[in-house]
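Allow me, if you will, to draw on your knowledge of protein folds for a short while. Thank you for your consideration; the sequence and its tokens are set out here:
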Amino acid sequence: MNERAPPAARSRKRAVNLTLSESLVREVRALTPNLSETVETLLAAHVAAESSRRAEREQAIDATIAWIRAHQDEHGLWGEAFSTL
């Protein structure tokens, strides 16, 4: 097995069915002899990018919540001065 391969490439393989356009498959086969490896590499990159994007979004949400809480601690609840309760 290739020692330089990404972890996904070294893990156990599973056959899956994909439906791809014939013209795209022809073009890809002209560029690479191993369609499975190419798709796996692209999917691994997509998963990494999407995971990173989601983690960054969660961090932004957490930072926003922390800012709101700090603002409320310092200034009270928004609209509290107008509350009749």
About this structure: Helices lie at 7-10, 22-31, 35-75. Residues 43-85 form one domain. The mean pLDDT is 88.
